[in-house]
Structures are given as structure tokens and as C-alpha cells.
Write a structure and sequence with these properties.
Length: 567
């Protein structure tokens, strides 16, 4: 391992002992460049994941210090904005741990000598002189990872085979972590982009290696950044893993021109006034809706339809005043239709439990009967049949488990079998049998501070009641808050496979889409959007997040909005 150090125009490098270069499944060689060894916790986590991966080695870690730039001077004058973020943190219920500083030197134990190089600033870019560049080339790097972006260029060669990689955050670009989420908040964007980019300098080209859509918190800039940072910490490991497996790099595309705009502008007093105005407008609107409208999760259904567009002709099934219903799953058994659902009492301390109801062809639904309840929240009762037996995998993320239940007497008596997975943060586990294989779709987060709405993971197995699941090499197969989280049972229609997906942009339970799965193998996965629904498309509904159909019955859950009757 080597240490690269830059101070006021010079670089100090600890060179690793050179080895014969080969890409025959040898570890990738990565250099880390940073302005300080004390970095944000999410960056520390990113470096730690590289070290733990077993597929890459840190050839050296570089520390550089630049002369105070124009942006830095602007930040020195950004007292009002910094004050606003501090005040917001006090009101925000979450904890802003992504920005807590940690020393990445704690991840390394070796100590080696250093070699100094000069750094020149030319035409707004920082460059190494020829002798320094040749030393970097001799280090035989595969990737240079910039923890803190600088316009780094090289005089005559690229010192890493696959370029210089860095994180990029939507409208904030690659500079100023405090700006992440600000402009999305002001413009009312339903999501925020985050990704990993790379550039080479001979010839110069920039490419997007990885990209994701995450949620924008409508009331907190800090909360938006927090989930965005923790999710982004995993991007470098994912892309290195792909590079190690395929021995080649597969960029998504070149950066779009609109991403380059005035992304790094430091907010002034006018911007802060807009922030507060937007916040108050959203706050008062929510208070108004809660005061004059009732909004509660219930069900809507339709018989004898083969089209996914049936959502425009649904009939309501309303819960009692003290309850709400959600996550309905249809199951037909012995010519009778059953609806398994999440049931919960209204109020601040609502906790879901699993109930089942019967519905006849006229749409008459029996009173739901509780079948499973635990001390923790339960929802999304995915029911399936295997070897003549009925099983259920409900969502039990609050217990950090994926649990399996077996039906002893259908449909009312269920017994716990085992935990399929433990110590895991996963929601809405959905099974699908295809080509003699059980495919397991579930939304997960790799870090506890990330969002559970964004990323869909895929596993496969020969036995659905086994704990032995093989992860798909492209995990997460979807990283997009508008279509990642499962929204019901996967179904086939006209020889095509469709996956209902939640749209959690704007807010949780905002809408859903039907994704057509076009490629499903142990080595590849692809899907395209077939149709989507938002509250704008459906009258009297302000949210929906589950779609299920079976044997001629289609059912959804929806937030039904009605004006309150006031005396």
C-alpha cells in the first residue's frame, strides 16, 4: 500500500512494490484521492467496502490540499445557509450521521516512505509534472477514486486504465455536499439523481458509470442528503465488482448538458427566503388537507377484466372508521376468492397485522378476520403454494427478518416456520416461479440510514422455503424510487411477464407502475415500463401502492380522499 499526499502545490506518494501486471482475476488496484484524511462517514464507509470486498486493493491513499478557491470563499460567506441547515437538523427527527467526520487512516495499518511531486495549476485544472505522472503510471492503477472532486488532468497519459471516478449528486453536481437536495427541494422535483462518473484525459471524455433515483424529502434538505449519501456509498463497490467480473467497463452514457448548469451556486438570502416560503406552503397545504379532508387506505376491486387499465373502473371496499386496509393479495381456493391484507387501527401508534376476508362475485366482502399478529408491524402478506402446501411471507422489516409461515387450515390458521433471513432490512418480498426456478424480489438497503424505497434486489433458488438464496450479479437490479419497490404479485398476460412496482416519488404510496420483465436469467435482468398510475389519473384517490390480480379479480389499495362534513 502507498500513501499519496498533496500539500500546497505538491504531492507526496508512498509507492507500492510493483508487481507484474495482469487482469486475470487479480485484485483491482485502486488509488484514493482526498482533500483530508478526515472524511464524511459515508465516504469512510465507501472506502471500507472496497477494502472488505476482496476484489480490490488500495494501491495508495492520497491527501491533497488546495489553495482557497473561489467556491471556498463563497462558502466562507454562506453563513445564513449553514445556519439554516443547522436549525433544520434540530427540527428534523432523523440524525445527520453521513456528515460526521471519520479518519480513513484508521482503515490502514501499514506505514511506508513518501515521495514528493509537484502539482501545477493550468487553465483552471490541476496537473502532475511528467516525473510524477510516470510514477503513477508505474503504479499500474485500474481506478483512481476522488473522494473530493477537483478538475484533475494529466499531461500526456492516463495513469489508471479505467479513469478517474467520482460521485455526482443531481443538481448539486460534484461539489458541495451541503447543496445536495437544495435545488430539488426548491424546484419541487419528485426525485434526486445520484451516481458515479468517470473521466479520462487523453482524449478527454466523461461518462456516467452508474445512476440512481432517490426520494426528495418535501420538508427537509438534510433528510434528502442523508439517504442519498448512504446509498451512494455503495456505488463504487458495485461498479468495481462489475469490472472485476466482466474485466471491462460498461458506462451508461455521456453526461447530459442540462446536468452542467449553475449547479454549484451558493444560496443567497433570496434563495433562503424561497426555501422558507416553499416549506411553509407545503406545511400549510398539508394542514389544510388534514383539516378539511379525510384520507384513509381502503380497497378497490373489479371482476372479469383482463386489462391492467382496469384501475379507472374500480369499486370501493371501505374499512370501518377505526381501521384501514392495505396490501391486498387475491387468492382463489376451491372456487372461492380470499383477500389477504394488512389491517391496522387508526391513530398515532398504528401497527399492522395480517387478516383475511372472503369476497363473492357480487363484490360482497366478509368482515376481515385476524390470522397473524406479532409485537412488530406486519404487512404485504404474500401467499404462495409449494408442493401442495400454502405458505406466506409477510413483510416483517421492523423485526429485521424475512419470515415464513405455513397454513395448517386454510385460510385462517397459520404457523411460523422459520426466518428465511435475519439481521436484514428488507420489505415486500415477492416470489415468482419461472423456468424451473424460484425468483425472489425484495427491496433492501445496504446501510441503515438509506431509503427502503429505492433499490430492488433479486435472488434465485430451487427451494422457496430454503434460506439459501443466490444473489443476482447485477444487484440491485433496479435503483429508482419511481419503480423499484414491489407492489404485488408478478403475473403473466399474453405470454408476457409483468411486475407491479411502487412509485414512491413525492411521498410513500404515491403511485404505481406495471413493469414488463423482458429478460430474467441468473446473469441478466431487464424490464421496461408498460403503464403507470398516479393520483392525477384516478378520481378521488390521493395515493396507491398495491396491485394484484388472479382468476378474473383485480384489486388495489388506495388512499381515498373525501371532504369532511362540518357542522
Amino acid at each position: 500500500m502507498s500513501i499519496l499526499h498533496l500539500e500546497a502545490g505538491e504531492i507526496v506518494i508512498n509507492l507500492a512494490v510493483e508487481k507484474p501486471y495482469s487482469m486475470e482475476k487479480k485484485k483491482l488496484r485502486v488509488a484514493i484521492l482526498t482533500r483530508s484524511f478526515k472524511v464524511s462517514s459515508w465516504k469512510y464507509y465507501a472506502v471500507e467496502e472496497i477494502i472488505k470486498s476482496g476484489i480490490a486493493e488500495i494501491a495508495f491513499t492520497a491527501k491533497f490540499r488546495l489553495q482557497s478557491s473561489e467556491v471556498d470563499k463563497k462558502w466562507d460567506n454562506a453563513f445564513l445557509y449553514r445556519s439554516y441547515l443547522r436549525l433544520e437538523k434540530l427540527k428534523w427527527k432523523g440524525s445527520a450521521k453521513a456528515s460526521v467526520l471519520k479518519n480513513i487512516k484508521d482503515l490502514f495499518t501499514e506505514k511506508q516512505d513518501t515521495v514528493k511531486f509537484d502539482l501545477e495549476k493550468t487553465e483552471g485544472c490541476y496537473q502532475l509534472k511528467e516525473d510524477g505522472l510516470s510514477r503513477l503510471v508505474n503504479a499500474r492503477l485500474d481506478v483512481i477514486y476522488l473522494l473530493d472532486y477537483i478538475p484533475l488532468r494529466f499531461e500526456s497519459a492516463n495513469p489508471s486504465r479505467f479513469g478517474v471516478w467520482y460521485n455526482h449528486f443531481g443538481m448539486a453536481g460534484c461539489k458541495g455536499e451541503s447543496l445536495v437536495g437544495l435545488w430539488e427541494f426548491l424546484k419541487g422535483s419528485p426525485f434526486i439523481f445520484s451516481g458515479l462518473r468517470a473521466f479520462q484525459t487523453h482524449p478527454f471524455q466523461e461518462q456516467i458509470l452508474y445512476e440512481s433515483k432517490g426520494p426528495v424529502n418535501r420538508f427537509s434538505i438534510n433528510a434528502t442528503g442523508e439517504s442519498c449519501f448512504w446509498k451512494s456509498a455503495g456505488f463504487i463497490h458495485r461498479k468495481l465488482n462489475e469490472l472485476y467480473r466482466k474485466q471491462t467497463l460498461s458506462p451508461i452514457r455521456h453526461p447530459e448538458s442540462e446536468m452542467q448548469g449553475n449547479n454549484h451556486k451558493i444560496p443567497d438570502l433570496t434563495d433562503l427566503m424561497r426555501v422558507n416560503l416553499v416549506f411553509m406552503k407545503r406545511y400549510l397545504k398539508e394542514k389544510f388537507i388534514n383539516r378539511f379532508y379525510s384520507q384513509k387506505w381502503g380497497l378497490q376491486f373489479q371482476f372479469n377484466s383482463q386489462e391492467t387499465s382496469v384501475l379507472n373502473a374500480m369499486k370501493p371496499l371501505l374499512p370501518p372508521k377505526n381501521k384501514f386496509w392495505a396490501d391486498p393479495f387475491v387468492y382463489k381456493n376451491n372456487e372461492r376468492y380470499y383477500i389477504f391484507l394488512e389491517e391496522s387501527y387508526t391513530g398515532k401508534k398504528k401497527k399492522g397485522f395480517i387478516s383475511v376476508s372472503e369476497i363473492n362475485s357480487k363484490g360482497v366482502m366478509s368482515q376481515p378476520r385476524k390470522v397473524i399478529e406479532r409485537s412488530y408491524h406486519m404487512s404485504y402478506p404474500f401467499v404462495f403454494q409449494h408442493l401442495g402446501k400454502h405458505y406466506m411471507i409477510p413483510e416483517t422489516n421492523q423485526n429485521y427478518t424475512i419470515e415464513l409461515y405455513q397454513c395448517k387450515e386454510f385460510p385462517y390458521h397459520w404457523e411460523f416456520v422459520k426466518n428465511l433471513k435475519e439481521h436484514i432490512s428488507a420489505v415486500d418480498t415477492t416470489l415468482f416461479f419461472h423456468n424451473s426456478t424460484w425468483w425472489i424480489f425484495t427491496n433492501m438497503k445496504e446501510h441503515k440510514q438509506a431509503s427502503l424505497w429505492d433499490e430492488l434486489f433479486l435472488f434465485y433458488t430451487d427451494d422457496p422455503i430454503s434460506s439459501d438464496w443466490t444473489p443476482h450479479p447485477d444487484n440491485p437490479i433496479v435503483s429508482d424510487v419511481t419503480k423499484a419497490r414491489p407492489a404485488g404479485k408478478i403475473f403473466t398476460q399474453n405470454n408476457k411477464i409483468f411486475r407491479p412496482a411502487q412509485n414512491c416519488s413525492y411521498r410513500y404510496g404515491y403511485g404505481l407502475s406495471i413493469q414488463e420483465i423482458t429478460d430474467l436469467t441468473p446473469s441478466s435482468y431487464k424490464e421496461i415500463e408498460s403503464i403507470s398510475y398516479t393520483p392525477k389519473d384516478l378520481k378521488g384517490i390521493s395515493g396507491l401502492h398495491t396491485f394484484n390480480k388472479s382468476d378474473g379479480l383485480t384489486i388495489i389499495d388506495a388512499v381515498m380522499k373525501k371532504k369532511k362534513i362540518t357542522g
